[in-house]
Amino acid sequence: MAKPNPLLLVFVLPAIGVTFLISTFIYNANRGDANPFDLSAYRRNWNTLGGNEYTLRGQIDQQLAHREKKGRVISIKLLDGSGRVPVFFPPSINQNFEVNQRYKIRVRVLSDTLYAVSLEKF
Amino acid sequence: MKNTNAILVLSLVLSVPAVMRAQAPLPAAGGAPAASASNITNAGTAGDYRSTTTETMSDRIWDTKSDSLDFENGTFQWKGRTFNLGNSRAMRARLERYFATPAPAGDIRQYEAILRQIEDLLSPGKITNANYAFNIQRAWELLYEAAKFEADADNCLTIAALVQKTARMRDERRDLQLTRNIHYSEKNERLRDKTRHESTRELREDEASGASVSIATKGKTTTKSTRPPKTGTAESARHNEMLAEKRAELLRDEKEISTIGLRSRLEFQSQIAAFLLERRFRHTLIANAFYRQLYSGRAQDMRIGNKQVKEMFPVSDFVPTIDSLDMLAREAIKDVDTGVKAILSLYNNGERFGAFERIQETFFLGEHEPAIVALDPEKKRVLKEVWSSARDLQRMGDERDLAGCEETITKLKALASDFPAASITSKINAARQSSDLELLAAENAVLAKDTNGAKAHLERATKIWPANPGVKDFAKRVRDHANQLGQRIPEFDRLIAEDNLRSIYNRKEEFGLALLQDKERREKLQTIISNLARIDLALSTARALKKQENIYPAWDVIEEASQYGNTDPELGKARSELSAAASNYASLLAETKRYEQSNNYAAALTALLSAQDLNPGSEFCRQGIQRISLLLVEQEHPNLAP
Predict the structure, then answer these.
(1) FRET label pair with B68: which of A113, B50, B521, B566, CA 20 to 30 Å apart?
(2) Contacts of A66 in chain B (CB under 8 A)
(3) Is residue B565 assigned to a domain?
(4) Measured between alpha carbons, how far is B177 from B187 in angstroms, rounded to an integer?
(5) How far apart are CA A117 and CA A113, in angstroms?
(6) Is A110 within 8 Å of chain B by CB?
(7) Per CATH, which fold does A39-121 belong to?
(8) Mean pLDDT across B28-43
(9) How confident is the model at residue B156 (pLDDT cuts 50, 70, 90)?
(10) Whole-prediction pTM value?
(11) B15 Cβ partners below 8 Å, 6+ apart?
């Protein structure tokens, strides 16, 4: 087996790294700009929202259910519009939720369930 | 004929003044009876009943036992004495005949007046030596006058004939006595001649033999004897023999005369006793009055009918006399008069049942008394109707025809306001209830397939009230029940299949009986009944909440109840009534249910949270949220970790 060219390693690898970083930056920049969640559209037909991610600004209403390794279901009172929606928080989102705390939550719609992908307190 | 009889009676009267004097003493000064208290029962004291001795005896004899009728034995008890009236059927027939008989022809008051006149003519207070013959004759003639009345039933003719017969017997006796006297006079003469002739002959024989000489001159006999005389002994012996013969003849004749007298007396007494036993008290008094005047004081004891008469008196050592019978007859007449007054008083006051009770006693005591005989036919008709109804009631009671008894009681109450209906009615009601309860028990026994028990209860029910209409219904119900059992099971299955639980619930008793022995179906039925009872309760709660404008809570109640029978038409009806007012809430809950059923728990939870916003206090929403949240969290979730 022939030995790799040292010049190639010196130039190509950093270039790949830079490309990855640029791509990641672009990806993250796109995610933060997800559309706001539309409750009425959801209630009309959640299937049309399936697979999408939305940003949901809301206030912690109450924790409805919690299973240690499964996650928890929290009722979020919407700040943009009226009504409450249940959001599933997977165990990976380890956050201390308190009632009335405000969050900007990125949710993904899978079937009829809103899964929290990320959140940001405000 | 009547004139001949009159002559006979007159001759009788003329022939017995001494008898009359002996037994009918004249009243003493002041009108007090001549007879002393001690000889009242033996001496003739007819017409005077004020003696204290008599009253004492009367009290002793007539105890205070109440009068009573014994239809079983056909007897009538009056003041401790028993009259035999024949069997019960005969008694009833007599009473019925009495009620149906119109008043007898002729003026009953006039008849009574004639009877009183006869008694008056013969009473010791009125009869004297001077008018004895006239009074007897007049009283005897009046008997024929009295006999003309229908009410008398010719009993006065019997007395008249008896008096006439007594006169004939007395004539026979007198003739016999006269003949005997003549016969004995002639016979005595013959005996004396014969004795004298034989004595002379013996004397001559003695003289011829020289043993003795006997000379009879002008009735005197001088005897010269050379040996012991024998003439005196022979004469004495013959004389004694003749005397004995004469005594025997006398005794025989006396007996014959006495037999005639006794026969006459006994016949009279027999008739008096017969009158009393037949309760012809007025004829008893008249016959007694004649007897007292025609027979001596020694002949006042009763010899005929003694046993029968004694039976009427509850005193063992009682000696019946003409006076005691007289007293009994007078007391009976007085009692009948009092009874009739009581009857009329009760009747006029509308107490016709009481009047009917009194008329029974009074009738059987004084059936032949003018006061009873002449009772107003209209009153008798009404009392007969009371009697017929009372008999019907008794018969229906025996037959346990309770419905008939009630009808008759109503009729009786209309006729006689004093009829004691309350106790009978309460007994009828008790019997009815008892019979119905037995029928119910029989029906339960049939359902429990206890044939023997059902039979026993049915027998008891029919025994208590044979005509119970429920018995017929019971038989029909048992028959129907057998048919129903076969029909109800498939019907139940069909209704279950149609989910028509409300129909089953509405006929739960019917199905309950039919499915009693079918455990599986019975349990289903119990569940249906339990569920629909809850639905009914929820429906009434929802209606109350709706009335208070609590629409969403009312809907919650409906929703909760729907778990017991969502297809129940009553529930659907209530739901449709509320749906307009609670449409938002209702549609949210409907969404919840629909999404939950399709396992879209998040969507269901979203809808339910919206519903809770509308009805924050809803327990239904709270529980639903709790339940669906758990379902949601328990779901399999994709790993969305960044």
Answers:
(1) B50
(2) 633
(3) yes
(4) 15
(5) 12
(6) yes
(7) OB fold (Dihydrolipoamide Acetyltransferase, E2P) (2.40.50)
(8) 34
(9) very high
(10) 0.45
(11) B170, B171, B174
